[in-house]
Design goal:
With 352 residues, this protein is an alpha/beta fold. It is built from 13 helices and 13 strands.
């Protein structure tokens, strides 16, 4: 458990309980650490009355305001709280109902402390296999719903006209295949971004290049990518439609690979040494559903292989998708919303 939980528990709980006594805790609210949390929740929100938003801090409030979302800055004292992460310690009143859900598909790194998860009444995971893994380490609040972030790609919300507009905005050349590069945090110990971030210019003559990286990636790395001519840096929370534009996705151990797999994209991955964030089951899945290479000079051949034999690893992707998502039917948000309505009956009403 993080130290702030113990520091917050008494003062936060006293204030919350006094407010509860006078019926001042009225709203079920969504806690957002950034704009990505809001975007991830969108496919759940569509099945619920509008939720008021709690921003983690002023920076998060500004991010949300930039996309037209008003919010109150934490600390706030809601009747109940929903979050796209595991941050129950910020709301330590034990009688407050709390729900968390994944902001990245499946668990590509080891589970955090089970005590932190178990502060929550529910934590929505992306598959029954993930729930089994969670239960094995003592997490008791897990429920499988799927990954709502992917729903728009399977329920018809994103159409060909929208994708064409994105492609035009990214400056994609119809005569070239499109590569999407992704990487986990550069200091995670399991990132391969150092292999390619300063070499993208060698590929732009032959391919369209899209890039998305972990938000914590060093600024100098991001700036190098942004400064590379004919490379489009995806600087938005909603990367899924850009994945759909790609012919081949290139990565390491980032959970974005799960999203690429769900969208049936051929993948090339750089091998990385095991670190404290390595999950052996996930490492094996990546090995099975992608063409693996060790160095940048092997990339050109791997890309050609992926483009000429696009169905070569289709069976492995299907297997991985069953493990990571159970089903990809565009209804994960609905399943999450139904669980929320069970826990928070007021969400069955027309107004929250």
């Amino acid at each position: 458990m993080v130290l702030s939980y113990y520091l917050l528990k008494l003062p936060y709980t006293v204030i919350w309980e006094v407010r509860e006594l006078f019926n001042l805790n009225k709203d079920v609210m969504l806690y957002c650490a950034n704009a990505l949390d809001y975007q991830i929740f969108a496919s759940v929100q569509k099945h619920l009355p509008p939720l008021k938003i709690i921003a983690k801090d002023k920076k998060a409030q500004q991010e949300l305001a930039a996309i037209g979302v008003s919010s109150k800055v934490y600390p706030v004292f809601p009747k109940g709280v929903i979050m796209c992460r595991q941050a129950g310690y910020k709301f330590p009143a034990s009688r407050m109902k709390k729900v968390g859900m994944r902001h990245g598909a499946y668990t590509f790194k080891p589970f955090a402390n089970s005590k932190g998860y178990n502060l929550l009444d529910h934590f929505y995971m992306t598959s029954s296999r993930e729930v089994e893994r969670a239960q094995a380490v003592g997490i008791t609040c897990a429920k499988a719903v799927g990954f709502p972030k992917l729903d728009p790609m399977f329920d018809g919300s994103v159409d060909t006209e929208q994708l064409a507009a994105l492609a035009k905005g990214a400056g994609l050349d119809d005569s070239k295949a499109t590569l999407l590069f992704t990487a986990t945090w550069n200091d995670s110990g399991v990132s391969a971004i150092s292999h390619w971030y300063d070499k993208l210019d060698s590929l732009t003559a032959d391919y369209n290049i899209l890039v998305t990286v972990h938000p914590w990636t060093k600024d100098e790395i991001k700036q190098k990518i942004k400064n590379t001519k004919q490379v489009f840096f995806i600087d938005t929370a909603d990367i899924v439609p850009y994945i759909q534009l790609a012919d081949v996705c290139i990565g390491d151990t980032s959970s974005v690979l799960a999203e690429c797999c769900a969208l049936e994209k051929d993948m090339v991955t750089f091998t990385v040494d095991d670190g404290k964030r390595t999950v052996q089951e996930v490492k094996q899945l990546i090995k099975e559903f992608s063409i693996q290479i060790d160095q940048f000079d092997q990339l050109a051949g791997a890309i050609k292989q992926a483009l000429t034999k696009p169905q070569h690893l289709a069976q492995a992707r299907t297997k991985a998708n069953k493990i990571m998502f159970d089903q990809l039917d565009g209804k994960a948000g609905l399943r999450a919303a139904n669980y929320l309505k069970e826990l928070f009956p007021q969400l069955n009403q027309t107004n929250n």
